[in-house]
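To assess whether ligand presence alters the predicted conformation, the chain was also submitted together with cobalt (II) ion. Input:
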Amino acid sequence: MLYYKDILRKNREWAASKLEKNPHYFDKMAKGQTPPLLWIGCADSRVPSSEIIGAEPGEVFTHRNIANMVIHTDINMLSVLEYAVNALKVRHIIVCGHYGCGGVKAAMGHSTVGFVGKWIRHIKDIYNKYKTEVDSIEDENARWNRLVELNVQEQIVDLAKTSIVQSAWKNGQNLYLHGWVYDIKTGIANDLEVSMEDASKLDDIYKIHL
Ligand code: CO
């Protein structure tokens, strides 16, 4: 119970430190949110979205799942995306993967069953798509890292395939999709330069005639 009591105490200390700097800090928060950013990241405890970009509460609308996936039947992700784009009008969506991702690693193996097994099958499809490239990498860790990057790249495209994102673009809303990879060993996040700001790079078959 020590740990549990400790985190409650730390919460009180955190709130007090915010009030010390600005007595109206939480009054302002309570008035509503206008976050500029939707973050889609891995559930991994080592990649806390707000903390690694020095963001304050109110800045990052967040969706996290195992291996930062954008699955087009995932009503949870779609609800977050719809609300973030249509109601909050976020300008940026960052899909942030990370090296050392256990979900991606599991997808490269053959022993994961249950719900996680079903979930990571989507990553197996990506592995299969880029099999020639990934399998040509000799070092196992480098192969894993590359699949982490390819997974992010594919999630950006999957975001662009949604009617939510395509409608926003068609309506002239400024909406930028960015793919990042965070390195747990250094704390540094890199932009993979797979950004999209319109549907021009999307394969024609995925373009919705709105
Ligand atoms: Co992960």
